[in-house]
Amino acid sequence: MGRTLVYPRVQKNTVHRKDDRATYDLHTIHSIINETPVLLISFNSSDPEDPFPTILPMIGTMGSFAYPSADLNDPLECYLHGYVSSGCMKQARAHPESGLAITIAATKVDGIVLSLTPNSHSYNYRSAVLFGYGSLVEDAEEKLWAMQLVTNSVLPGRWDHTRTPPDKAEMASTTILKVKIVNGSGKIRTGGPGDEKKDTEREDLLQRVWTGVVPMWETAGEPVAGGDGRVEDVPEHVRAFRDDTNKVNEKYAKTAAVEKT
């Protein structure tokens, strides 16, 4: 069997409530990050008068420029795509040596868990949190590599089916933030309802209340042509993405509804 790497448990990343659902496995955590279309990025404001942390939705993916063949079980950086003048990039630019302290969060909802009582209702879900330091990618080769990585993370193979490489203006207006991960953790719930004994012993409740799981999954719809492109047939890489995404997401959600891990 292959090795299984985990993030070390420290005070910052240790899950306390429902710790049986916790995971520190790199592959699992990185998979959740990569399968979440929009990541939530948090960092502190540089303005001492601003008491609120900043949180931004961003597109990102895990990867390693130094070791491109590394898989999700390996230590990886998180590459985030943004506009050159965005607040996150400005903040990172102000911390060239230490990097900008960043928290990355991702969540997938896989089902609604309906129990005997509202207090026991829940979601089947997968969530991950990463802690790290972000710095701007200045190396031209790494930046281009990261732009391709992020593009293909949205829809596999898309980079090679477009006008590439980006021109000088596009490269100048786009910034890639590389977050060196310090630590992380994940939390996963699967299975059906978990009611308390005081309710499961009440025959009137058992006869009156429906319990179970409503599976939920992200679905890619039928591609709709638009814009200035004149190609009529939907390309194979787009159809393959749609079919594969729907199949994988549906299977996971339905399995999670009946199998507790």
From TrEMBL:
InterPro entries: Pyridox_Oxase-rel, Split_barrel_FMN-bd. SUPFAM superfamilies: FMN-binding split barrel. Pfam families: Pyridox_ox_2. This is Flavin-nucleotide-binding protein.
